[in-house]
Amino acid sequence: SQKNLAAMVANPRDLVEPRGMTPRSSQRRDIIMDKYVRGDTTVSNKSKDEKVKASDVEG
After folding, report:
1. Is 32 exposed, middle or buried (0-12, 13-18, 19+ CB in 10 A)?
2. In which residue ranges is the amino acid composition biased (Basic and acidic residues) (predicted)?
3. Could you tell me the CA-to-CA distances from 29 to 22, 38, 39, 43, 45 in Å, in that order?
4. Which in 2, 13, 39, 59 has the greatest CB count within 10 A?
5. Domain for residue 32, yes or no?
6. What is the domain extent for residue 31?
7. Cα 11 from Cα 5, distance rounded (Å)
8. What are the pLDDT digits (tens) for 25-59?
9. What is the structure's pLDDT at 59?
């Protein structure tokens, strides 16, 4: 219903048109580019809790 949708939408204008993108962090970009130039890995490090396998998930 309209009331349920209105309760879920923070800004009704989002249903009419998408919001503009916010600028990217130049500091983060510089860090990643420096790592890339040096040949270092650019992936984020995962904590022990984030390293799971599908077999670890109970169903």
Report:
1. middle
2. 27-38, 46-59
3. 14, 14, 15, 13, 16
4. 13
5. yes
6. 5-50
7. 11
8. 889 889 989 999 999 988 878 787 777 777 766 65
9. 58
